[in-house]
């Protein structure tokens, strides 16, 4: 099994823990740290949708809170079973750009396994707001 396949399996497991009682839109993410650890995240909804946290940000924030260095993350897998293909929302794209390695890849998959897609951060957010 490749690291990408392993990460996607971990993202699928994370999606199973999604707290999405309002949208029923389950999303999981798995982030590879510089030391080879995998940190999972899932979306967590709130009845006030603006307070909801996406799976991608959950994984990144968890990794940083566990002591992993921002900017050192090279690969993230994102999975959502209820759509053919998932991609990070705009807010997540901005956070990914700031907290992941500049050469990082984001692998996305939904219910259509043939539609799996890998993006670079530049492809996800061209012309991004960037303070660095």
UniProtKB/TrEMBL annotation:
One Pfam family linked to the record: dCMP_cyt_deam_1
PROSITE patterns reported for this sequence: CYT_DCMP_DEAMINASES_1 (PS00903), CYT_DCMP_DEAMINASES_2 (PS51747)
Cofactors named for this entry: Zn(2+)
Listed CDD domains: cytidine_deaminase
GO MF annotation terms: cytidine deaminase activity
Keywords: Hydrolase, Metal-binding, Zinc
E.C. number: 3.5.4.5
Limits of the CMP/dCMP-type deaminase domain: 2-132
Reactions this protein catalyses: cytidine + H2O + H(+) = uridine + NH4(+); 2'-deoxycytidine + H2O + H(+) = 2'-deoxyuridine + NH4(+)
UniProt record similarity statement: Belongs to the cytidine and deoxycytidylate deaminase family.
Function: This enzyme scavenges exogenous and endogenous cytidine and 2'-deoxycytidine for UMP synthesis.
NCBIfam families per UniProt: cyt_deam_tetra (TIGR01354), PRK05578.1 (NF004064)
Protein known as: Cytidine deaminase
Organism: Pseudomonas veronii
């Amino acid at each position: 099994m490749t690291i990408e396949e392993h990460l996607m399996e971990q993202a699928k497991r994370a999606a199973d823990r999604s707290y999405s009682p309002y949208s029923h839109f389950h999303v999981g993410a798995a982030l590879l740290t510089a030391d080879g650890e995998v940190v999972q995240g899932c979306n967590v909804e709130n009845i006030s949708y603006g307070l909801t946290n996406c799976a991608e940000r959950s994984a990144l924030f968890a990794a940083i809170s566990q002591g992993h260095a921002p900017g050192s993350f090279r690969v993230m897998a994102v999975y959502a079973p209820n759509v053919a293909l998932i991609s990070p929302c705009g807010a997540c794209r901005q956070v990914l750009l700031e907290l992941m390695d500049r050469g990082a890849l984001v692998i996305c998959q939904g219910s259509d396994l043939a539609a799996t897609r890998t993006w670079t951060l530049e492809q996800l957010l061209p012309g991004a707001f960037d303070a660095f």
